[in-house]
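for the recovery benchmark. tokens below, seq after
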């Protein structure tokens, strides 16, 4: 998808930097707090408890597609940090987390898509 601004939702490891280096246009790099990638500057750090404000920030930045790359483990959630919009998603996220990592990833992808982002694979952009 040429001409579409891309964000890498980066986890730990070398994959996010390798992916960013292979892309024709520099992506916005976002990382879950505590899971920064190696050898890559993070533009935006976020927490799960503030997922909706993070998604809105991506919208404001004109991001059209996102790629998940790198390793993350389930973060510990701090209920005191939840905003109202993200709190409304918590039952769905918690049910997915209880069902396992694959279910959690599926729900996270669904949430990004519900906000209008196209979720693409590494092979689609590099």
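predicted aa per position
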């Amino acid at each position: 998808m040429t001409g579409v601004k891309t964000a890498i939702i980066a986890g730990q490891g070398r994959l996010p930097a390798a992916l960013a280096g292979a892309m024709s246009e520099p992506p916005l790099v976002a990382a879950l707090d505590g899971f920064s990638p190696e050898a890559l500057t993070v533009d935006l750090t976020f927490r799960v408890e503030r997922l909706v404000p993070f998604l809105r920030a991506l919208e404001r930045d004109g991001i059209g597609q996102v790629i998940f790359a790198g390793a993350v483990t389930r973060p510990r959630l701090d209920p005191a940090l939840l905003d109202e919009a993200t709190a409304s998603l918590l039952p769905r996220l918690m049910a997915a987390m209880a069902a396992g990592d694959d279910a959690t990833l599926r729900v996270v992808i669904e949430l990004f898509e519900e906000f209008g982002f196209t979720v693409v694979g590494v092979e689609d952009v590099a």
